[in-house]
Amino acid sequence: MARRCPLCRNETNWEDNPWRPFCSERCQMIDLGRWATEEYRVPLMETPEGLLADLSHELDRETSIDEQANS
Ligand SMILES: [Zn+2]
Fold first, then answer.
1. What is the CB-side half-sphere exposure of residue 18 using CA atoms within 13 A?
2. Domain extent at residue 65
3. Can you give the pLDDT at residue 10?
4. CA of 10 to the centre of ligand 1 (A)
5. Which pLDDT score is estimated for 36?
6. CA 32, 35, 40, 46: dihedral to nearest 10 degrees?
7. Does pTM top 0.90 for this prediction?
8. Distance from the CA of 7 to the center of ligand 1, in angstroms?
9. Ligand 1 centroid vs 21 CA: distance in angstroms?
10. Residue 24 in contact with residue 9, Cβ under 8 Å?
């Protein structure tokens, strides 16, 4: 049964296709990479504590820069 790959829109056979719903490993990896990128853009969800600490340092620095600019 032919379906379309959600990534590249090529028709692909789902039967015996280990990469379904994608047509190939390449499309699956691109989609996984996209998910990983999305996760990094939402840092407050399931973020390792070390990364959160780095983020709060960044925020502190930005805040103090703002205060200096206002005074
Ligand atoms: Zn594809």
1. 3
2. 2-70
3. 93
4. 6
5. 78
6. -100
7. no
8. 5
9. 9
10. no
- The total of structural domains in the chain comes to 1
CA of 50 to the centre of ligand 1 (A): 36
* Residue 27 pLDDT: 93
Residue 1's pLDDT is 63
pLDDT score for 18: 92
Per the structure block, which two tokens stand in for 22? 């994608």
- Summarised one tens digit per residue, pLDDT across range 17-64 is 999 899 999 999 999 888 877 766 665 555 566 666 666 666 777 666
- Angle, CA 43 vertex, CA 25 and CA 20 arms, to 5°: 20
Residue ranges with CB less than 5 Å from ion ligand 1: 5, 7-8, 23, 27
Which are the contacts of 17, defined by CB distance < 8 A and separation ≥ 6?
23
Strand, helix or coil at 12?
strand
